[in-house]
Amino acid sequence: MRNVTVYITLKSGVLDPQGKAIQESLNSLGYDEVQSARVGKTISLQIEDGPNLEKRITEMCEKLLANPVIEDYRFDVEEAVQS
Amino acid sequence: MRNVTVYITLKSGVLDPQGKAIQESLNSLGYDEVQSARVGKTISLQIEDGPNLEKRITEMCEKLLANPVIEDYRFDVEEAVQS
């Protein structure tokens, strides 16, 4: 079993109104040192080991998890710890 | 300037219907090896250096960025690269 974490972020030119709202909220709470905020997401998957694991994860990202037009993604694969 | 990334995840006992939908969608696309999926978010902040930086970031997480009742958070602080 593998633990896979996919990190998805908006590409740098894409407007992020949610991040802008967070930045303005932090500023109005007195955290004036915050210059910008951008929001992304993570998807943690538990995947059974198999052939072509990384290729299949890339396919999942392209087909379903990320929107390659406006988002970048990267992923980490770790051996799952047996409890 | 510092680049701060806050990682927010649902606590382990909290239901994640969005993650469940992603898992079922991946299974129905033929990725039967996916056993579970859980969704989290990241918030990337650019923050001016100052005193008590880590304490202030912890306050931001507790007050605004995360919901400590149902979410866990952690953050990384990096020196921003000057371009």
Describe the structure concisely.
Two copies of one chain form a homodimer. By secondary structure, chain A is α+β, with helices and mostly antiparallel strands. Chain A is 30% helix and 39% strand.
Describe what this molecule looks like in 3D.
Chain A has 83 residues and is α+β, with helices and mostly antiparallel strands. Chain A has helices spanning 17-28, 53-65; strands spanning 2-10, 34-47, 71-79. Chain A is elongated and about 50 Å long. The termini of chain A are close together. Chains A and B meet through α1, β2 and α2 of A and α1, β2 and α2 of B. β2 of chain A pairs antiparallel with β2 of chain B.
CATH topology of chain A: Mth169, Chain: A
Rough outline of chain A: elongated
Largest beta-sheet details of chain A: 3 strands, antiparallel
Q: Give me the CATH superfamily of chain A.
A: Phosphoribosylformylglycinamidine synthase subunit PurS
Number of helices of chain A: 2
Strand content of chain A: 35-45%
Return the CATH architecture of chain A: 2-Layer Sandwich
Distance between the termini of chain A: 12 Å
Count of spatially separate domains of chain A: 1
Average pLDDT of chain A, rounded to a whole number, is: 95
Largest interface: A-B, 33 and 33 residues
Helix content of chain A: 25-40%
